[in-house]
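One such given next:

>
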Amino acid sequence: NISGHAYHPGTDTWRDLPVSNGVRDLTGASTVWTGSEILTWGGRTSSTAFASFGRRYDPVSNQWSLISTQDQLSVRMNAMTTWTGSQWIILGGTDGMNTLSDGRRYLPYEDMWLPIAMPPLVARYGAATFFIGGRVLVAAGQIQTQLSANDYALYDPSTNTWSSSGFAGGC
């Protein structure tokens, strides 16, 4: 079960969130705010098992609901994630044994997952991701436990293509 609290800055008050089965104590889950709801997917449970599901929370109805599992990502935690305004991009991460490079795009308005072209970067987790100028910038991150990356690439979700990979000085 997941429990939590929502803060309303206009009234300076907190309220309890409803309980959602199966999402208690997730570590490293991918989470994003769409402007109207919270999406969360994956992560590892307190029992060290990986979650292979997602939930969406609607603060207006105060309800959690399931995210489609058809064509979803493989299990992972610490993935890179960003919101484009219409698509949720989830990329990389780790499955506890391997560092991953693949990803998926989730379209919440259609409740469907779409593939992402394989990036020109080595597998990583914890990279910085930003949506800027219609493209997703993926930079730096961890390749392995004591090895950091200092490169970057740009992903265009409208064409499902990658470009401009290079080295990011100072990362």
